Amino acid sequence: MRVCTATACFAAQAGRHLPAVESVLGVTADDRDPDPEVSLRTVRCLGYCYGGPAALDGVTACAGPDVAGQLAGRVRPHAPPIPAADATGDPVVLAGIAGGAEDPWRTWAETVSRRTPELVRAEVASSGLRGRGGAGYPVAAKWAAAGGSPDTVVIANGDEGDPGSYADRLLMEADPARVLAGLALACFACGARHGLVLVRSEYPAALARMREAVARARADGHLGRRPHGGGVDLEIEVVTGAGSYVAGEETALIAELEGGRGCARARPPYPTDRGLWDAPTVVNNVETLAALPWIVSRGGAAYARRGTPGETGTKLVCLSERFARPGCHEVELGTPIRRIVTELGGGLRDGADLEVLQVGGPLGGFLAEEELDLPLTERDLAGHGAALGHAGLVAVDGRIEPLDVLRHVWEFAAAESCGACSPCRVGSRRGLEQVRSGVPPDEAHARMLRLMGEASLCAFGRRLPYAVRSLVRAYGERLRGWAG
Ligand SMILES: Cc1cc2nc3c(=O)[nH]c(=O)nc-3n(C[C@H](O)[C@H](O)[C@H](O)COP(=O)(O)O)c2cc1C
Ligand code: SF4
Ligand code: FES
Question: What CATH number does the domain located at 2-71 have?
């Protein structure tokens, strides 16, 4: 059994669900007993952040306040489906889910039979589309960097590790054809004959839906040798991830696909130069790929008119369980965060007050209530020490002590740091020890945060100090001095 202890599930019951589960099952989580009757593991996010606390019993999802009873067999296992809605009037990535959209495979058939890769690249360049997986890199620039070699591999990153985000799970489970057609278009644009979809092992339903969708696409003639009479071959394979937050980082994901540990590697070389088995490799997030059928069929200029001039298009935002109406919404980039929180989310459950809002997962940051008028863009969030990330929004109300939220952030860091570099491996453990000691940090802690931020190998260690500082700032007086 796997029990989620990540941020949205932690915020749901202030972390009390884990001792409750341990108590009803009579086992200790993460026990090293080699032959247990029940094996209970803590995991960080199962994609049920809208209805947690969540757990998986084998592949059966259990979610809700009675999760312990479900795991103990006292209550029938249940987990609500993802509430999803479009707030734009013309959905891009939710087009298939919100209804009335053109079949994404039709766009693929027309493209592969009548258009050129250059044309697809030009439409995507003019759309201004940036990667939705967190780093926000322009998609057309990444494709160009791969150089168009037929050895190129395009990987759909379905690892979605950010606690609080379940957008990729929604897309892979509810509209897998759009994700696959997007991947096919990306392969066509990059000259690649092979595409891979990596789905995290914590998403068994998404894995099954993606596999079924590939089989159907093959049977319908969308894949294989020269589909739709075009001049290219294309094969797509679905692979299961090995389960760790850092394994979603693109170099770690490639290491994992090569059979190694999912640890980040030093760059350069960048994956577009030497990636999977040294082939040029493009890694794109699932939501990024799902935008491609719309962009290719409606044109890059139409997409560029959406969102803001600097950050075009739409974004899926995911609201956590603490909201009165949790769920996944497609919004224009630039939508005021307050509108998302109050109009789409309905404020907090039971009229509770929002204390802090985590935006963009563990590598994003925290905002105070007074900061909610910010537009949802990378630029505006960065100005407040936060980041858009994958746009999970996790609400924390007043039932949780600020120091417990800080401890949770460091626990996540210490548990998920892959250990490949010492600033992050050592720093994340020191940060946790400090907060556990209950003694506010001194200048040495501030130096350690600076070192982590500057010398860590990947964005995990580099971003964590920002997340810590933003939390301390958002709580103001109540956490004063805790960033050192
Ligand atoms: C620690 C860490 C974890 C990451 N996890 C994910 C993930 O789960 N899914 C994802 O798409 N990108 C993740 N990324 C970002 C990827 O490295 C990469 O930028 C992204 O998949 C590229 O796709 P995009 O350009 O379409 O956003 C992560 C990055 C870091 C540093
Ligand atoms: S920063 Fe952390 S997660 Fe990234 S490589 Fe170093 S130890 Fe691993
Ligand atoms: S399911 Fe627990 S944080 Fe996402």
Answer: 3.40.30.10
pLDDT tens-digit profile, the chain (484 residues): 999 999 999 999 999 999 999 999 999 999 888 777 889 999 999 999 999 999 999 999 999 999 999 999 999 999 999 999 999 999 999 999 998 778 999 999 999 999 999 999 999 999 999 999 999 999 999 999 998 899 999 999 999 999 999 999 999 999 999 999 999 999 999 999 999 999 999 999 999 999 999 999 999 999 999 999 999 999 999 999 987 999 999 999 999 999 999 999 999 999 999 999 999 999 999 999 999 999 999 999 999 999 999 999 999 999 999 999 999 999 999 999 999 999 999 999 999 999 999 999 999 999 999 999 999 999 999 999 899 999 999 999 999 999 999 999 999 999 999 999 999 999 999 999 999 999 988 899 999 999 999 999 999 999 999 999 999 999 999 999 888 6
Asked if the bond preceding 269 is cis, omega within 30° of 0, the reply is yes
Which CATH code is given to the segment(s) 314-397? 3.10.20.600
Q: What is the DSSP string of 190-214?
A: HT-SEEEEEE-TT-HHHHHHHHHHH
Residues within a 6 A CB radius of ligand 2: 246, 263-264, 417-421, 424-425, 456-458, 460-461
Structure tokens at 231: 């001049």
CATH fold of 84-304 reads: Rossmann fold (3.40.50)
Q: Residue 152 to residues 144, 190, 192, 267: CA-CA distances in angstroms?
A: 11, 7, 5, 18
Ligand 3 pocket: which residues have CB below 6 Å? Answer: 4, 6-9, 45-49, 52, 54, 163-164
| Cα of 294 from ligand 1 centre, angstroms | 22
Listed in sequence order, the residues at least 6 apart from 395 whose beta carbon sits closer than 8 Å to its beta carbon are 11, 319, 320, 322, 323, 341, 345, 348, 354, 357
By DSSP bridging, strand 281-285 and strand 354-359 are unpaired
What are the structural domain ranges in the chain?
2-71, 84-304, 314-397, 402-479
State which CATH number among 1.20.1440, 1.10.3470, 2.30.30, 3.40.50 fits the domain covering 402-479. Answer: 1.20.1440
Q: How far is the CA of 166 from the centre of ligand 3 (A)?
A: 9
Nearest ligand atom owner, CA of 247: 1
**What is the C-alpha to C-alpha distance for residues 355 and 368, in angstroms, rounded to an integer?**
7
